[in-house]
């Protein structure tokens, strides 16, 4: 009996240590090569066992003879795991209680039932299908094992792509433009999340993604997640949602095993399921938050990772603030019937506010009615195919971010477009003038991005940007009572520069040539990465990275560009200067839906690539 008590005490001692889960009883000796405990370790263990035995006897005494005058004895310390061994409980249930802690040995706060219900309803609504819930609870945040796309996050399920693509955009920012800072970061001394000092106009990143180390990618991921969460928390706090699993402080492969075992058979079907597994920690220190994210990285790499990060962002913003950001807070953030991330989720991760629109500022309709858009400049931007279809208008905040990286939205998927050279964002003479005129026009546009303004607003635009139209052209534009941007733009292009227009007899004012890269995290068949076999080529299923050469013509239409003036690009894809430059014909223009997205940013762009066309679905 004494031996059994000692063995039980040893088990209780192991379970009380948060750094490792309880070990199973061993039926055979340890391996001969295992390290032998030192005499000092044995003496320390003996003292701990004696203390644990004394605590057990004290607790038994309190339970067996309670005093009526005494208040109830306090609960066992949270650092001690307690297992109910009563006959009515199955060993399965006991295992789940140990794995998920349930207020036993896990740090952090457990959501209340009310908070869990509000969170679940806000994200999924009341009639969510099990298929959508499965999509969102089976997507980890993991890098591609393929060397050519090793900088990219792999997507397996259709729903969480908006979360993954936005994290991907920030990861690329850190990998491409802050490699030195990533190299300096250690798990013990994280750096702050500021963008640092960098001469953007002269910076060209390396494109040898296969040379990236796992350590550098992990650091970039941690910094990206921390940056997004603090942005959602107004740079005052970050809330990190992890799993309620004992043993997350364990180092190495054991941690992944603990998480995988805890998630066996777990399904998320209700708010109570979320409440059981979540642990919430709030941080006001960036350093401490980054350390927590580094420690919890295997949790975010697990199949619950994308959902946990979305919950972290929502709680960092605050559920009340999320609902205040939205135009219609009654709709779920995950859209039916396919479970896609809404624009509100993407905007939350891009700018820290869950606004539903992509235009700049807000649009007032009078009577206290207005729609909310993007109110600030952003680190990484957003382009969408829907703008090319005239369903919306992306504002300058998202279209011209601080870094040349854009989340790209299609009707059903999110991908990432980026440049290695920050100078692609620099405006030439034509673009500067075009941006100036467009900003003045949009300031008078009350149509929700429809591209037309009143006659009164039009006269204000002409005064503001210094355009002097001949009377016959002015009368023609104003004849319908409103002015459409496309008609106004064609008049400007044919108006001499001396009158405020953009007509350029040299044809060289708007020339630009540069490279872009496009990443789609969904594994697809790729003929560019096919392997030769005895029976022919075998297509490889992997995320797809496509390099595009983009030429913005100096004339006003791609047809005119192809007809007479083409720019010879210099080293690094930058155009040659001087009017006497010899010009050559480009490759024939290629088209894919991504090109339509690119043209919402560079309106006359001509794109070329090698191999498969880039896919945004």
Automatic annotation (TrEMBL):
It is an enzyme of class 3 (hydrolase). SUPFAM superfamilies: EF-hand. It catalyses: Thiol-dependent hydrolysis of ester, thioester, amide, peptide and isopeptide bonds formed by the C-terminal Gly of ubiquitin (a 76-residue protein attached to proteins as an intracellular targeting signal). One of its GO terms (molecular function) is cysteine-type deubiquitinase activity. Its EC number is 3.4.19.12. Residues 120-487 form the Deubiquitinating enzyme MINDY-3/4 conserved domain. Residues 40-63, 82-93, 576-585 have a biased composition (Basic and acidic residues). InterPro entries: EF-hand-dom_pair, MINDY-3/4_CD, MINY3/4, UIM_dom. Keywords: Ubl conjugation pathway. Residues 1-93, 567-590 are annotated as: Disordered. Pfam families: MINDY-3_4_CD (PF13898). GO terms for biological process: protein K48-linked deubiquitination; proteolysis. Belongs to the MINDY deubiquitinase family. FAM188 subfamily. PANTHER family: UBIQUITIN CARBOXYL-TERMINAL HYDROLASE MINDY-4-RELATED. Hydrolase that can remove 'Lys-48'-linked conjugated ubiquitin from proteins. This is ubiquitinyl hydrolase 1. It comes from Populus deltoides (Eastern poplar).
């Amino acid at each position: 009996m004494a031996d059994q008590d000692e063995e039980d005490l040893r088990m209780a001692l192991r379970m009380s240590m948060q750094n490792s889960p309880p070990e199973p009883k061993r039926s055979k000796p340890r391996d001969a090569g295992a390290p032998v405990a030192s005499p000092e370790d044995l003496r320390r263990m003996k003292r701990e066992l004696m203390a644990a035995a004394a605590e057990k006897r004290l607790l038994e005494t309190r339970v067996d003879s309670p005093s009526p005058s005494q208040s109830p004895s306090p609960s066992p310390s949270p650092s001690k795991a307690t297992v109910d061994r009563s006959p009515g409980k199955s060993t399965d249930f006991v295992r789940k209680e140990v794995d998920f802690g349930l207020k036993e040995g896990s740090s952090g706060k457990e959501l209340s039932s009310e908070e869990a219900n509000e969170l679940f309803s806000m994200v999924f609504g009341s009639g969510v299908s099990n298929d959508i819930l499965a999509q969102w609870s089976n997507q980890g945040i993991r890098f591609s094992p393929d060397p050519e796309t090793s900088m990219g996050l792999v997507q397996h399920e259709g729903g969480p792509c908006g979360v993954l693509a936005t994290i991907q955009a920030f990861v690329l920012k850190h990998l491409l433009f802050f490699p030195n800072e990533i190299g300096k970061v250690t798990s013990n001394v994280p750096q702050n999340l500021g963008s640092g000092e960098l001469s953007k106009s002269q910076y060209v990143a390396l494109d040898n993604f296969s040379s990236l180390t796992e350590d550098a990618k992990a650091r970039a991921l941690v910094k990206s997640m921390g940056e997004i969460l603090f942005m959602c928390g107004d740079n005052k706090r970050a809330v990190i949602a992890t799993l309620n699993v004992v043993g997350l402080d364990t180092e190495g492969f054991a941690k992944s095993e603990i998480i995988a075992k805890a998630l066996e058979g777990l399904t998320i079907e209700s708010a109570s399921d979320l409440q059981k597994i979540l642990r919430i920690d709030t941080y006001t220190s960036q350093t401490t938050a980054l350390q927590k994210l580094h420690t919890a990285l295997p949790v975010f790499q697990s199949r619950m990772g994308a959902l946990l990060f979305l919950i972290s962002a929502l709680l960092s913003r605050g559920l009340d603030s999320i609902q205040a950001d939205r135009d219609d807070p009654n709709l779920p953030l995950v859209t039916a019937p396919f479970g896609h991330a809404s624009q509100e989720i993407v905007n939350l991760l891009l700018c820290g506010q869950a606004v539903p629109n992509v235009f700049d500022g807000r649009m007032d309709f009078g009577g206290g009615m207005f729609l909310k858009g993007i109110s600030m400049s952003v680190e990484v931007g957003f382009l969408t195919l829907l703008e090319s279809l005239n369903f919306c208008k992306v504002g300058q905040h998202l279209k011209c971010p601080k870094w040349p990286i854009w989340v790209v939205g299609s009707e059903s998927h999110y991908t990432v477009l980026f440049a290695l050279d920050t100078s692609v964002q620099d405006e030439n003479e034509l673009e500067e003038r075009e941006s100036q005129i467009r900003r003045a026009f949009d300031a008078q546009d009350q149509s929700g991005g429809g591209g037309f303004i009143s006659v009164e607003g039009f006269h204000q635009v002409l005064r503001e940007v210094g355009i002097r139209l001949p009377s016959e052209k002015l009368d023609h534009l104003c004849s319908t009572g409103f002015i459409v941007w496309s008609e106004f733009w064609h008049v400007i292009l044919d108006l001499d520069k001396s009158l405020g227009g953009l007509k350029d007899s040299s044809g060289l004012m708007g020339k630009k040539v540069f490279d872009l890269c496009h990443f789609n995290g969904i594994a697809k068949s790729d003929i560019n990465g096919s392997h030769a076999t005895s029976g022919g080529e075998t297509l490889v299923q992997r995320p797809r990275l496509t390099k595009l050469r983009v030429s913005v013509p100096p004339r006003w239409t791609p047809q005119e560009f192809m007809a007479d003036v083409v720019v010879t690009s210099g080293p690094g894809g930058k155009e040659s200067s001087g009017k006497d430059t010899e010009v050559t014909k480009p490759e024939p223009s290629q088209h894919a839906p991504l090109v339509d997205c690119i043209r919402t940013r560079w309106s006359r762009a001509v794109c070329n690539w090698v191999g498969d066309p880039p896919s945004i679905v």
